[in-house]
Amino acid sequence: MREFMQVLRRFVPPYKKYLVLSVVFNILSAVLNIFSFTALIPILNILFNVEEANIPANLMAWDWGNAKEVILNNMNYYVQHLVESVGASTTLLILGAIIAVMTFLKTAAYFLSSATIIPIRTGVVRDIRNQLYEKITSLSLGFFSEERKGDIIARMSGDVQEIENSIMSSIDMLFKNPILIIAYFGTLLFISWQLTLFTIVFVPIFGWFMGFVGRKLKQKSIKAQSLWSDTMSQVEETLGGLRIIKAFCAEDKMNSRFDRINSEYRDHIMRVNIRQQLAHPMSEFLGTVMIVIVLWVGGILVLNNHVLSGPVFIFYLVMLYSIINPLKEFSRASYNIPKGLASMERVDRILLAEKDIKESENPLHIGAFEREIEFRNVSFRYSEKWVLRNINLVIPKGKTIALVGQSGSGKSTMVDLIPRYYDVQEGEVLIDGINVKDLGIHDLRLLIGNVNQEAILFNDTFYNNITFGVDNATQEEVEQAARIANAHDFIVQSEHGYQTSIGDRGSRLSGGQRQRISIARAILKNPPILILDEATSALDTESERLVQDALERLMKTRTTIAIAHRLSTIKNADEIYVLHDGQIVERGTHDNLMQTDGYYRRLHDMQQV
Known about the structure:
elongated
């Protein structure tokens, strides 16, 4: 319960007014229910022809010490006078009408108490999803290198849905039922504290059973949700690798693999649901046992000691039966909540994840790039493996430098350090003499444009993909950027021009077209610093020519850092840096490096062969 209350304290405060209204309506519903059942006592007195000796002769003054006797005396007094005035049958009709009115008011209050909980349920789930999405966009790239995309999707979908189905659906029960239980229990004490004290001997036993099974349920739920993540991860992998699966005729292999994971998930969720189904029969059985024992003990009090009258004891049984349903729902919530808490744990692994890239408390704000980018004694590692060691280089404004080397030599990591996708462990990266850690992250990244090997586009229109990250761009500016990127012609030939949807990740476009859209996006942003990460390596010759032409236009008047496997694309760079095993082993122009019989020359000769 403590974990559940922590979840409520985190997410419910914005909806306090709805919670207050729900509590008020629940109290009103409980009070009206008690009063409507109280009308049973005079009805039973009339039906069973209570002897004249038991009929009160006078009204009693209020006395807190004898409140029960005063209420019963005065109620019977008024009912008897009503019987004498209009007759027994008419009195029964009047009492029945009172019960009907009270029941109508009670059910209205009951409905309003549930209706005011719904904005809390739906609002909290929306807030969790929003917080998850915002946290995902704010976490560093390093976090996602250790997490599977399918697992994150499972937490966004399945786990949040489980929170809604388990925790949020239990809010109504947990705020309504305690009020009903307290109100009904207070009434039972008021009627007969001796019988009630005997009754509550069974409540701790009831609670212990529920708590024991609930703890076991949470453990099973965590495992089941983990297996659901594995299932979603395989679906995500399959969608991404469908071409390879078909090419290697591996459909049966993948189907078998999915069936194994899916069946294991089914086995665990089946055990969770079977255990959850114990809630109703267990509470039903315990409740019936309690009623039988109370009926026996109360019957003795009525028959032998005359502590209770028959009608009052029947009223006691009605109230006792009324308390069983809230107790059952409360126990059902105690079963549901552990499943939701298991999902909340998994969601919190994202929500409570530490941000590796933190902005300084008083960041410096810059609006322009003036002089140079500098790597000063930079070393960087992923976990325990050093990827860069003692990197020193200066990139003056307006120059184009190229990074070359074998895969894994640290080229992409170097350019990722400039916009602070990662932070260095040793040394510092500076822009205009200021450590990038001291700059505002938003200001820093506004200075930088990216064109990557894989053009990352979104399932939206040409227009929205080009204007991505740029506010208030005009149609003329978008078209001008597309023309510079050699993209305007194929855009206007599409079905709806710039308003044509390009499909998931640009699936309706060729590789060269996708790349030119990403170049148009960078042109529209108009950044002073440009990072090209193997922007033409995956293209055919004709597409490469068009993209290279677009890139040359984009690079004019900008400071450019280009990563290239095809050395032919960076011959005109102002300086080329050759990386090997995380260190700069050579630097110079293309011609100078070719005259040196070094690593660059060997790379060039291998590509020529």
